[in-house]
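Milestone M4 deliverable, item 7.
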Amino acid sequence: MTVFDNTKILLVDLQCIPCIDYYKLLVPYQHLRFEQYEHLRKGSYSNRYYVAGANGRILLSVPLLHARKEKMPLKDLKICNRDRWQLLHWRTLTSAYRRSPWFEFYEEELRSLYDKKFEYLKDWNLEAFTMINKWLNLSWKISWTEEYFRTYPDAEAKDFRNSIVPRLVIDNPSAGFQEYHQVFEYRTGFLPGLSILDLIFCEGKRSVELLGVKRNG
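Output delivered:
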């Protein structure tokens, strides 16, 4: 059972279509503070997410404009829309999850996210996060950092920035989320580190229970 800590603010980075372990981290809190002044870290979930394909884990990334993007605050990162990356992502998602039991229930609304153009990565991430929260019936009080601190000065904030990253989640499956049935599990085995979309498309309404959310009644 999840132990709720409603007295603390959880300080985190805003992921790109967050992974399952990220949601597991967020569930016990009521107030999230998103870091927006830190620089992009290579190998983070900030502009990438993973889905399960027939041949294993597939990386989908949102292309960014800036040549030296690692030197820019997260809030200023712009998406490169020269290539049709949203179409590529959408085709990959439909190929991967068309056979999943719950994809069709979310398909229309999800498609609208991939049809809409975004200038900033922050806006794409937030809109995806908001849409998925609605599906899961989850909500938080949201605030944003106003400047960058290497060590955060607010004693009421628990600093988990960059604590959920692919190299830790994927390489340490025993420390992560409990297993559930995945579409291509019979071929690939269970794949950790995937986007929350994988859980939703495979488990539907049961997703919130697997995340540790206690329902009333």
